[in-house]
Amino acid sequence: MKKAFTLRAVLTVTTGRLLTESKGPNDNGIGDLYDILNHMTRDNLFTHQLGRAAGECKLWLLRWFPELAVFADGATLDKWIAADKTGTGQEAIKMWLAEMKVMFPEIRDEYEIEPIPQGDHDVKDPYDELVQMRGTAEGVVIIEIGD
Question: Which DSSP symbol is given to 1?
Fold first, then answer.
């Protein structure tokens, strides 16, 4: 089952930079990253699991859409960000994407993405993974919210 995702969400996975679009004054668009990674992995990821899942999904996105490899070098984006006087970086990202689309017309605004093959994502208990990442359970607190 394929699902459409914006170029910015896809590039967030392939570049490792948060390029998602803000949906309001207190939003950085990270929900789009959760959406694409949850879809691709068939999981319900926690924040500390996003990096690992992105690594698993990046390989597939670049295999399915090799044109996205042109975004690997972030130097051009960095130049746009340095010139962005708004302070948010959002205008810089828009200008960078517009420039790249002119140079590489095969780049689309949206990509139809399917889940990665079963077995290519390691489903881990979020608590266990966090403890493993920290090396200790000390300070990891579970709060149960009632019905």
Answer: -
Report which of 44, 62, 32, 23 is spatially closest to residue 121, judged by C-alpha positions. 44
Q: Please state, in angstroms and rounded to a whole number, the distance separating the CA atoms of residues 138 and 131.
A: 8
All residues at 6 or more sequence positions from 59 whose CB lies less than 8 Å from its CB, including other chains? none
User: Which DSSP helix (H) or strand (E) runs through 112?
Assistant: strand 110-113
45: amino acid identity, one letter: L
Please check whether residue 128 is in contact with residue 39, taking contact to mean a CB–CB distance below 8 angstroms. no
Query: What string of pLDDT tens digits covers the 147 residues of the chain?
Result: 999 999 999 999 999 999 998 888 888 889 999 999 999 999 999 999 999 999 999 999 999 999 999 988 788 888 898 888 887 788 899 999 999 999 999 999 999 999 999 888 777 777 777 878 888 888 888 888 887
Picking from 1, 2, 20, the residue whose alpha carbon sits closest to that of residue 10 is 20
117, 10 Cβ separation under 8 angstroms = no
Residue pair 46/126 in contact by the 8 Å Cβ criterion: yes
